[in-house]
Write the structure tokens for this entry.
Amino acid sequence: MDGFPKLQTLQIIDCRGLNSIFISERSFHFPLTLQIFVVMSCKALRSLPQQIDTLTALQELPLSHLPELDFSFCEGACLSLTALTRLRIGSDNTLNTLLKEELLPISLVSLTITNLFKHKCFEGNMLQHLSSLEKLEFTCCRRLESLQEDTFPSSHEVPSIKECPMLEERYKKMEHWSKIAHIPVKIINDQVTI
């Protein structure tokens, strides 16, 4: 990484044999200019660098399809990322860790939750502190059936739901509509409802 002192985007995608990303404290460091750090579809990946909390310029952190990743690095690290505005969470374990410990930084403007396979209900009361959140998207959450009434922060007005068939069906039948009726605009599979 020392060879790229002005690096702004780093993507690690589809490295199926990769089990850790380690940066020696003596020899290397993350460039402080890094704004986008993408880690996706690395099935064996177990850890991310502990220095992630030093990425003060980081704005986007998509983490998806990482079934073995240990999210203990998140404890305190995510809260240090005060420039982080966009986060993509693509696993049940990641979501559980981040929500349980309230580790999401208040700087988030956009949060995408995708590829949940275990969650049937999204208990998002732990999003309430995200006062800057403007966009909340649920996509490809096949088993998701309901959203808690207090899921959405007061600043948030437009939830987007895509490819979540059980949730979509409940809203179409108006079974669950009261949970999001207070939100003026809703987007379900690219259809806007006011």
Q: What stands out?
A: The longest strand covers residues 9-13. The domain at 9-193 is CATH 3.80.10.10 (Leucine-rich repeat, LRR (right-handed beta-alpha superhelix)).
